[in-house]
Amino acid sequence: MDEEFEAFWQQYPRKVAKGYARRQWPKARRLASFEEIMEGVERYRKEVQGKEPQYIAHPSTWLNGERWTDEVGVNRSAEPPARKPPPGFWQPTAFQPIDAKTKEWNFRMKCWRESNLWMTSWGPKPGEPHCEVPRHLLAGEGNAA
């Protein structure tokens, strides 16, 4: 069984925590044949090829999770999806730094969107003449400043 584990270790795409992986090997072998596990390793190698190491499962985790049974194309170690801002929320770019005034206007627009609250001290509401809300914050509102 040591020879089989060494063959697994040589083929697995991430070489970390060999001792932990070696401890999981007997359990994996009771559940599947050497050939089944190695076919799963080959599929996984192709699936994670070119990925950053932090997105490749540790071999002990892969064995413990019975990952040789994963469906082709199902990548559970993929990068997490990027969080998207709520609809209508203005996102600055590298060329538009957020200053204190923009933060304040973002807060005001959030209040207006969520509760229809608009303080008279903020000036005319979006869509009204002489509105002072910056144009880039009105882009998603269907209003022009």
Tell me what the structure shows:
- The chain has helices at 2-11, 18-31, 34-48, 59-64, 100-115, 135-138.
- The mean pLDDT is 82.
- The protein contains six helices and no strands.
- It has two domains: 2-69; 84-145, no CATH class.
Query: What's the average pLDDT?
Result: 82
Instruction: Report the order of strands and helices.
Output: HHHHHH
Radius of gyration: 27 Å
| Quaternary status | single chain
Major sheet: size, sense and barrel closure? none
Please indicate the percent range of residues in DSSP E strands (runs of 2 or more). Answer: under 5%
What is the CA–CA distance across the termini?
73 Å
The proportion of residues forming helix, as a percent range, comes to 40-55%
Q: How many β-strand stretches? A: 0
- Separate helix tally: 6
Per the principal axes of the C-alpha atoms, what is the gross shape?
Answer: rod-shaped
Q: What is the total domain count? A: 2
Find the structural class using helix and strand composition.
mainly alpha
Q: Which stretches are poorly predicted, pLDDT < 50 over at least 5 residues? A: none
Condensed summary:
The protein has 145 residues and is an all-alpha fold.
